[in-house]
Design brief:
Number of domains: 3
Number of helices: 15
Order of helices and strands: HEEEEHEHHEHEHHHHHHHHEHEHEE
Number of strands: 11
Mean pLDDT: 94
Structural class: alpha/beta
Bound molecules: 2-acetamido-2-deoxy-beta-D-glucopyranose
Length: 515
């Protein structure tokens, strides 16, 4: 810790009395290596720009800190000399590991490229509470694995809910301090962020949030408007959307992504169905669903129609879609080779990845109608937005999980924000459909909307004019100007967004985010 930073931190503590602040404990990073980096060999000493800290905060903010109402947050910082300000970074999840990002920057590892252009800033990476170095919950999945389809009848629904409740009970029984499971929602996370900001001695905080990091960021901006610096929200997930709308919009986005895979095949001479022309991938999907055994028309395999749909909706098209992989898998299946669609091997991976998300997501998520009829209605209405029949959708999985989570949000208000932020979306983002960014923009009317024309969940790793626009905003505070180009359209506050383009009209390739 350099002396001027110690002074800044100390001034921060003494200059504000709004919190009975606990001081940050700076710790030796070498003894607090984030989980994803454990086992790597680092040069010694670690870079002087890398700092690791802890801060005690109340578990339940409605009560004073102390005793079993105390939890410890873990965070890291990349701190250059003469920092120009504080940027809080969050990659989403919820619950994704965060602390390793400062290490990536300080050591110039692969993901340092996400922050190119922001090297002059303090970059703060806080593991959100209940996760990783911030008082991680202890939960056990036991031998529970999710199947490749969601329950459709009441008995199946009840059995599914029983598994969810059993899992939740492991979190409640195994985690400490007692009661923590109901205090790891976004409501608490934004309070934590403000405590860390204040303890660092900064009056304003900038924010670089991706995916669920945009949801945290929006609630912070709404709750602490006086401390909001430059907020760049990439792949916007807004509050205030009904369950039915959220799920219907994601179905529409999923179907658009499958059409993009067809557009990709048209452009890819190595695609096995390239010569078949437009629509070949959509046809192959239908054929694979139809052939899939053992109840399918060709029982050469144990891969079911639901397994095929699962791989489209939850494996190949999620995140940064693997169009080439999907196109190969569908083609191979139509030739009787089902090896790329074998759910049995993937089930534990998928279960381990999605179920823990509930721990925070369900605390934030309001169930509009928590009856079996309400759930069935979502399946029915959702299907109307899914003419291609992919069926399996991750907002729907999360919804189903939350119907049995012991703690869910009592309401789902919109989150109006006056600040001038930059919201970033991509036309063919399936995880956070671009319509959600339009909804977020309507709640933040002084903000600029950057619409990247291309694929992927998030623009942080897609070099080009859309990324440049929001990184420049973080670096300079200048809101991007309106523009209308092949790979980006930027809308100033008060302007009207164009309809989502036809998936075949936006070129595919590296510039569209396809690596
Ligand atoms: C780290 O260094 C040790 C000793 O030099 C070596 O045995 C090990 O393989 C290295 N690990 C990695 C991940 O490079
Ligand atoms: C930052 O400041 C420290 C101490 O003042 C100095 O040793 C170091 O070389 C500086 N680093 C850079 C990159 O300028
Ligand atoms: C960081 O790594 C990238 C690519 O690996 C390289 O181009 C760049 O020069 C490195 N930056 C520094 C400051 O070493
Ligand atoms: C899963 O675990 C439960 C409880 O430990 C046990 O009753 C059940 O038989 C197990 N099921 C399988 C398929 O292993
Ligand atoms: C999780 O469980 C392990 C082993 O039972 C225990 O050592 C650890 O303290 C627990 N962690 C929390 C946060 O409760
Ligand atoms: C793929 O797209 C690029 C860029 O739009 C274009 O130059 C190329 O000709 C296309 N290739 C095929 C096979 O359509
Ligand atoms: C299907 O699964 C059963 C039981 O797991 C196995 O006996 C059979 O060989 C499998 N069939 C194929 C075609 O993989
Ligand atoms: C099936 O496809 C996989 C993956 O492309 C490949 O490795 C394997 O050789 C194929 N099997 C047959 C029998 O063609
Ligand atoms: C839940 O949804 C069902 C089906 O749409 C409807 O019949 C029922 O009245 C709803 N219940 C509540 C409490 O809104
Ligand atoms: C709202 O934002 C505008 C421009 O961004 C600013 O001029 C105004 O003071 C803000 N109003 C409030 C109540 O914060
Ligand atoms: C952008 O350009 C396209 C055609 O090139 C046009 O259809 C669209 O209306 C323009 N949008 C804006 C916001 O100017």
């Amino acid at each position: 810790m350099r002396s001027h930073s110690v002074l800044f931190a100390a001034l921060g503590i003494f200059s504000r009395f709004s919190y009975a602040l606990n001081a940050i404990r700076w710790v030796d990073c070498a003894e607090h290596v984030p989980v994803p980096l454990q086992g790597m060999n680092f040069t010694s000493p670690l870079p002087s720009t890398l700092h690791c800290g802890q801060l005690d905060v109340p578990m339940d903010y409605s009560k004073p800190i102390g005793g079993s109402n105390t939890i410890t947050l873990g965070f890291t910082m990349y701190r250059p000399n003469n920092s120009q300000g504080l940027i809080n970074f969050n990659p989403g999840g919820p619950g994704q590991e965060v602390a390793s990002y400062s290490w990536e920057i300080a050591l110039n590892l692969t993901r340092a490229s996400w922050f190119a252009g922001l090297e002059g800033y303090d970059i703060l990476a806080i593991d959100t509470r209940g996760w990783w170095s911030s008082n991680a919950l202890n939960c056990s999945l036991g031998n529970w694995t999710l199947s490749s389809s969601l329950p459709s009848d009441e008995a199946g629904f009840n059995a599914f809910q029983a598994s969810v409740r059993a899992y939740a009970q492991t979190c409640i029984s195994l985690s400490t301090p007692p009661g923590i499971v109901q205090y790891i929602g976004t409501r608490e996370v934004v309070q934590d962020w403000d405590r860390v900001r204040a303890a660092l001695g900064y009056d304003t905080m900038h924010h670089f949030g991706i995916s669920y990091g945009t949801y945290y960021g929006a609630l912070y901006a709404h709750t602490f408007p006086e401390h909001v610096g430059r907020f760049a929200l990439d792949a916007v997930y807004p509050a205030g959307v009904s369950n039915v709308d959220l799920i219907s919009l994601q179905y529409a986005a999923l179907d658009r992504s499958l059409v993009r895979s067809d557009a990709y095949c048209l452009n890819d001479t190595t695609c096995p169905l390239h010569s078949q022309g437009k629509g070949a991938i959509l046809e192959a999907f239908k054929t694979a669903v139809d052939l899939a055994g053992p109840s399918g028309s060709e029982s050469t395999s144990n891969v079911t129609a639901d397994d095929v749909r699962f791989f489209v909706g939850l494996r190949y098209l999620v995140g940064d879609p693997d169009f080439a992989g999907l196109n190969d898998a569908l083609y191979e299946a139509t030739q009787g080779n089902w090896s790329l669609l074998d759910y049995s091997k993937f089930a534990p991976v998928f279960t381990g990845a999605i179920v823990p998300i509930t721990q925070t997501y369900c605390l934030d998520y309001h169930i509009d109608n928590n009856t079996f009829e309400g759930y069935s209605n979502i399946l029915k209405v959702g299907a109307e937005s899914d003419p291609l029949g992919v069926k399996f959708l991750f907002f729907l999985v999360l919804h189903a999980l939350c119907t049995a989570w012991p703690y869910t949000a009592a309401s789902n208000p919109t989150v109006p924000i006056n600040a001038s932020m930059v919201l970033v979306t991509a036309d063919f983002d399936y995880n956070t459909p671009t319509e959600l960014a339009t909804i977020g923009w309507s709640q933040a009317p002084n903000s600029v909307l950057v619409d990247r024309h291309g694929d992927d969940h998030g623009t942080y790793n897609v070099p080009g004019p859309a990324r440049t626009a929001f990184i420049d905003f973080l670096a300079t505070g200048n809101l991007p100007a309106a523009t209308n180009q092949t790979f980006v359209t930027i809308y100033e506050p008060g302007s009207q967004r164009d309809p989502i383009p036809d998936p075949y009209s936006v070129p595919v390739g590296v510039e569209a985010g396809d690596m």
